[in-house]
Amino acid sequence: TVLQGRLGSVALRVLDGARGEPLPHVNAWVGTGETTALGQSDASGRIALEGILPGRVMVYLVAAQARGSLVRRPGYAEDLHWVDVGPGDRVDLGDVHLWAPARLLLS
């Protein structure tokens, strides 16, 4: 259909920031104020989300404890990116590293 030709996609690979190894079970929300797509990284850390409306979209990543889970995995901070997706664009963010959460120590 005409609309499908105008929709974009976002792809990336999630890696453990300290070890550089692929990170499975990372939930990704990609969307605008109007629509959201949800996916989860596979064993190789890859995520590909299709059917993204053109415009500036947010890519929000949260490591999950297991496949299909929305329960946060301890030891990783969430990550946020803003990406411009044009009509029919296939945006590849490449490798994205998730790191341990920053700790603020006050004395």
Polypeptide structure, described:
With 107 residues, the protein is mainly beta. It has one helix at residues 2-6; strands at residues 8-16, 26-31, 36-40, 46-52, 55-63, 79-85, 90-98. The strands form 2 sheets. It has a 4-stranded antiparallel beta sheet, with no helix packed on it. A 3-stranded mixed beta sheet has the order 4-1-7. The longest helix has 5 residues, at 2-6. It is globular. The relative contact order is 0.30. The mean pLDDT is 90.
Tell me the layout of helices and strands.
Layout: H1 2-6, E1 8-16, E2 26-31, E3 36-40, E4 46-52, E5 55-63, E6 79-85, E7 90-98
Parallel strand pairs: 1-7
Antiparallel strand pairs: 1-4, 2-3, 2-5, 5-6
Structural Rg: 15 Å
What percent of residues are in strands? Answer: over 45%
As residue ranges, the low-confidence spans are none
Q: Give the N-terminus to C-terminus distance in angstroms.
A: 61 Å
Order of helices and strands: HEEEEEEE
Strand order of the largest sheet: 3-2-5-6
